[in-house]
Amino acid sequence: MLFIDFSRCCEKLEGISGRLEMIDIISRELPGLTDEELPIFVRFIMGRIFPDWSSQKLGIGPNLLYEAAGYVAGVKKENVITTINKTGDVGQAIEELLAEKSQTTFFHEQLDLVRVYRELTSIASQEGKKSQREKLLAVRRLLGNAHPLEGRYLARIMLEELRIGVGEGSVREAIAKAFSLDSGLVEHAMQALNDLGEVARRAKAGADALKDVHITPFHPVRMMLAQQGTIADMIADHGAVAAEFKYDGSRFQFHKKGNWARMYSRRLEDVTGALPDVIQQLLASTEHDVIIDGEVIAVKDGRPMPFQSVLRRFRRKHDVAEAQESIQLVPNVFDILYLDGATLIDLPFDERRRRLVSAVRFYIAPQVVSDNKETIEMTYREALDAGHEGIMLKVLSSPYTPGMRGKNWIKIKPAVDTLDLAVIGAEWGEGKRAHLFGSFLLACQKDGKLLPLSRVATGFSDEQLTEVYDLLKDAILSTSKKEVAFEPSLVFEVGYSEIQTSPTYEAGFALRFPRFIRIRDDKGITDIETLDGIRERYRQQAKGGGETVQK
Amino acid sequence: MLKATIDAEIFREAIDAISALVPECRLHTTDSGFSTRAVDTANVAMVSLELKKEAFESYKATKSQLGIDISKMKNIFNMAGKGDLISLELGDNAQKMQVSVHGYHYSITLLDTNTIRKDPNPPTINLPGKLTIAGEDLNNAIKAAAVISDKIAMGINAKDQTFFMIAEGDTDNIRREFSKDELKSLSANEARSLFSLDYLKDMGKVMSRAQEVEVFLGMDHPVRFSFDIANGNGHVEYLLAPRIEAD
Predict the structure, then answer these.
(1) Is B25's Cβ below 8 Å from some Cβ in A?
(2) Is residue A448 a contact partner of residue A529, using CB atoms and an 8 Å limit?
(3) Is A152:A3 a contact under the CB 8 Å cutoff?
(4) A/B interface, count of CB pairs below 8 Å
(5) Distance, in angstroms, between A51 CA and closest chain B CA?
């Protein structure tokens, strides 16, 4: 497939808002693609480059992209930024610049999907001190051969945000439709493979290839997630349920095959290097090949430490030995997804638990199984007394559904109204904070699009503002007067007193008294609150009080 | 196989001529010398270079292609003094070239030639305007223009029999006309094209060392610069695509 045809398809999708129509358009493109093109197309159309399980990063910041675009279009980088500020979108700006390009060239090579993917892969593999220059050359090469329309989508793919409103759900439906398969089967294959590209390739081969999916060690799958709920409802619906402490730490997925082990964070980043002690502990507790799910917590004098202490270790790349001594990290293992070559996610939870207990000797999280409300409530109080966040209730017959926030796992914790939102913009501060960002524009998500929801300007210490500035300064996409727009990458947890409807923000809601709680760098943009979730909270709030248990 | 020694200054001149446009190149060796042809990443400028066997103190080579990382070669020149000789040695199918200068012995890993762009074919173009100018005059005019603007018009006024260079900035402009007397030769066919100074600045530096540069121009056409290096034992040609004037 030529990249210009892919770009035209994106353009068509960008122009429509109906989900069914989108699915239809995508599904008509898929059957004509080769086995090599199919996964690339599927990932690109979602604004992704590499499989979701891969920790490979492209590593192209807006600055490098602007510089390359300027070079190719024959204008200065400042002109590129001016055009971006005018159009408000990097893709459109680069399209415009390429269209107005007054510099002629000697050759033009037609870009195709596979070539673009190969270039991006080679960009991602550049390391070391000359890598920035190599990346710059590769981006110039791509843009140098791009038509204006190709430039629009190349730029957006390189920033990994396609802005055409195609979410994973629509692409799954399109795959099912294109190859006449059940969409539940496509979804299940995605859960195990964690790469919709590979799922599409199997779907093309037929239902059998799609059914026969297994988890592969060192291809992390998404974590199963929990909803809010109540003890009473869970018992009423399911009878006996499993109760486990809800740890205030960092979620991990541990993969081991032979003596080789890797650990992945909630965002599926490889954090093995930062946690050698935890790796050793887990390696020593099993001889089997396993993939296990758990939470690592920081402990000092037998008490759990706040979440921030764990995150600090997750982020750490240097001085790991020194950090190891000051904070003791303990893994708590509560699920098993893979054991000695067998994929276990479709087994019921109680069976998985049995296999977990037989395969792993230490660090298994305690569990209480009961249909008695008082017993569960006692466990809840014990959890809080011991300094944990609350408890998790799990349906004994439930499979492990990667990436799903279903009703099979329920979290019970004291009511705190916080939301995880993406930071998409900011205003420069004033006075002594003039060189930092002062107020931040936050967004929730709907169908893969980010919708502005509120601003937050309070709750930051000076130190935190400096940290936030450092994290965001290279993500600036454009500036106009005091406003800055970011390439979305950072997630804030934000507290509020009430959700209100609002015409001011695109989401249609706004937060009353928003305040910054903390940076959630264990969460990615796709993990942020959805508009549906906010609507639900708004409804609950209107009903008078949430469903969460009050402390 | 390659075994050669060359004056460090001469080799630097050749490498500089390439590095004005590309960071890496595919160097062809034959028993009569070196040659390379490369295009910059934006497909806007091309260089072709030839360094004859006579440019070397000693030279022996078989037909081969070497992937050269230009910046690595430039590091080596930093170690060379005036009058130093550089020796280059490469075995058959070897991945590393042995380079010695001033008592230093480098073992340089060559680039995989498959990763370097294929040699571009120079387009066939007819450029009717032709002149010969001192490299230094050409470079000075480019430098003066670069202060004012990022692009420059170069052309020939057939009626006045002049070669002109005009740069327009946002507020200022600069004009330099060379009369026939200031040039070594002029075929006064009307010509005018606009070029990016980004490229010309780097080319200008290289050309400033040449006694004579032949310049070929057309109407909204590329410009070709042609000049000798290595005391006449080497030759460089630059080709630069024009910008299209907006107004």
Answers:
(1) no
(2) no
(3) no
(4) 50
(5) 25
CB-CB neighbours of A302 under 10 Å:
8
Secondary structure letter of residue B120 according to DSSP: P
Phi, psi of A199 (to 5 degrees): -60, -45
Does the fold of domain B129-240 match that of domain B2-114? Answer: yes
Q: Enter the ipTM.
A: 0.86
Spatial separation of the C-alpha atoms in residues B239 and A41, rounded to whole Å: 38
A234: left (phi over 0), alpha (psi -120 to 50) or beta: alpha
Chain A residue with minimum CA distance to B220:
A104
Catalytic center residues of A: 246
From the candidate CATH numbers 3.40.50.2300, 3.70.10.10, 3.20.20.70, 3.40.50.720, the one assigned to the domain spanning B129-240: 3.70.10.10
SS3 A539: helix
Residues 114-143 of B with CB under 8 A from A: 120, 123
Two tokens at A505? 């923000």
**Of all residues in chain B, what percent carry a pLDDT higher than 90?**
75
Amino acid (one-letter) located at A424? I
Smallest Cα–Cα separation from B168: which of B88, B79, B247, B84? B247
Cβ proximity of A403 and A459 under 8 Å: no
Q: Does the beta-carbon distance from A71 to B42 stay under 8 Å?
A: yes
d(Cα A20, Cα A17) in Å, to the nearest integer? Answer: 9
Using a CB-CB cut-off of 8 Å, the residues of chain B touching A107 are: 39, 43, 120
Entry field: residues in chain A: 551
Q: What is the mean pLDDT of each run of 10 residues along chain A (551 residues)?
A: 95 90 95 95 95 90 90 85 86 92 83 93 82 85 91 93 87 96 94 95 94 94 91 94 92 95 92 90 95 91 71 66 70 96 96 96 94 94 88 96 90 83 90 84 90 91 88 85 87 89 89 89 88 88 51 31
CB B35 within 8 A of CB B51: yes
Distance, C-alpha B105 to centroid of its chain: 28
The phi and psi torsions of A376 (rounded to 5 degrees) equal: -65, -40
CATH of range B2-114; options 2.40.50.140, 3.70.10.10, 3.30.230.10, 3.40.50.150: 3.70.10.10
DSSP string, A389-458: -EEEEEETT----TT-EEEEEEEE-----EEEEEEEEEEE--GGGTTSEEEEEEEEEETTEEEEEEEE-S
CA–CA separation, A268 and A57 (whole Å): 12
CB contact under 8 A, A105 and B150: no
Q: What residues does A516 pair with on adjacent strands?
A: A494
| Tokens at B240, concatenated | 């630069």
Cα four-point dihedral sign A77, A79, A85, A89? negative
How many CB atoms are located within 10 Å of the residue A381 CB? 11
Q: Which of B39, B239, B241 sits opposite A103 (nearest CB)?
A: B241
DSSP-assigned beta bridge partners for residue B4: B59, B88
Domain ranges of chain B: 2-114, 129-240
Tokens matching residue A134: 């190599």
Do the chains contact at A144 and B242, CB–CB below 8 Å? no
Q: Which residues of B touch A133 (CB under 8 A)?
A: 23
Spatial separation of the C-alpha atoms in residues B88 and B97, rounded to whole Å: 7
Residue type, A437: F
HEC per residue, A88-157: CCHHHHHHHHHHHCCECCCCCCCCEHHHHHHHHHHHHCCCCCCHHHHHHHHHHHHHHCCCHHHHHHHHHH
Check CB contact of B31 with chain A, cutoff 8 Å: no
